[in-house]
Amino acid sequence: MDRACLERAIEELHPASFAWALGCCARRREDAEEVLQNVYLMTLDGTARFDGRSSFKTWLFGVIRHAALAHARKTWVRNALLLKWLPSSQPQTPDCSGDLERCETALHVAEALAKLTSRQREVVELVFYHDLTVVEAAAVMRVGVGSARTHYDRGKKRLRELLAEVKR
Amino acid sequence: MNEDDDLREAFARLREVDAQQTPRIAMPCAQPQRRRFMMPAIAAVLLLMTIALVYVSRTKPAPVDAIRIETWRAPTDFLLKTPGSDLTSSVPRLQPQLPDIRKGDRS
Predict the structure, then answer these.
(1) Are A108 and A163 in contact (CB under 8 A)?
(2) What are the angstrom distances between the C-alpha of A104 and each of A29, A96, A114, B86?
(3) Best of A109, A124, A153 to mutate (most B CBs within 10 Å, chain B)
(4) A29 neighbourhood in chain B, CB within 8 Å
């Protein structure tokens, strides 16, 4: 894949990539932007190379997930080194300036997702938000399909419970 | 109707709301070039610094303190010089030609 082709593919996937980065960074907008910028840089300079074994979207999502984990580790070390007073980004809440009911639902989903385990959140988000199959989600998460399916079922069940609690 | 349609709908709403807040894409252009030349430059600087350090450590002058101790004189040093001390610091030499008494030399 040449640079122009990569740039086009990245541009097309940018909204989905940002949403996935946001999910991987506990909805912290600044962290998500930083992670995404690093991923684009790694992709374009060849540090992260697409080998064509999966779809570009699956591969890119895997790289974003990996970069987000590395970023989280870095943040943890920074906090451990007593640098907590440095400004850190806050979780992004959906902008409720438009349709209130729609925003309320979005807010509830975001809150419920935050209460799932990381594996459950990842697989549920990949399937329902990004329209991937469980097999593709497993490839992004680098786990077996069976394991992904288990997390998917449990995550879905827990999410329904959490959303039902909110409606009551 | 699919059993997961409720979840799909809920996520669709989250997606719509998130889409309004997605930042514009900013393609990184110049940075790859900078990064490519960064490592050799850092390595060259480190190498030069090592060479300079080795050179400086080899041509190091004698410590200043050692020189000072060597040339130092106590301020009360003169008190040790007593009158006639030069007689005790050297061996007296006898005259090589003593007058011969047996021959009656009276000069």
Answers:
(1) yes
(2) 19, 8, 15, 111
(3) A109
(4) 21
Q: Give backbone dihedrals phi and psi of A28, rounded to 5 degrees, phi first.
A: -90, 110
Asked if A41 and B32 come within 8 Å (Cβ–Cβ), the reply is yes
Tell me the pLDDT tens digit for each residue of B34-81: 556 788 889 999 999 999 999 888 876 666 777 788 888 888 888 888
Return all residues near A127 (Cβ < 8 A) that are at least 6 apart. Answer: A133, A134, A137, A152
Compute how many other C-beta atoms are within 10 angstroms of the C-beta atom of residue A149.
Answer: 16
Domain-wise residue ranges, chain B: 31-56
Q: What is the pLDDT of residues A12-24, one digit of tens each?
A: 999 999 999 988 9
Q: Counting beta carbons within 10 angstroms of the beta carbon of residue B75, is it exposed (0 to 12), middle (13 to 18) or buried (19 or more)?
A: exposed
Task: Tabulate helix, strand, coil % of chain B (nearest 5).
Answer: 55, 0, 45
CB A101 within 8 A of CB A60: no
**Domains within chain A, CATH numbers bracketed:** 1-89 (1.10.1740), 91-168 (1.10.10.10)
The whole-model pTM stands at 0.63
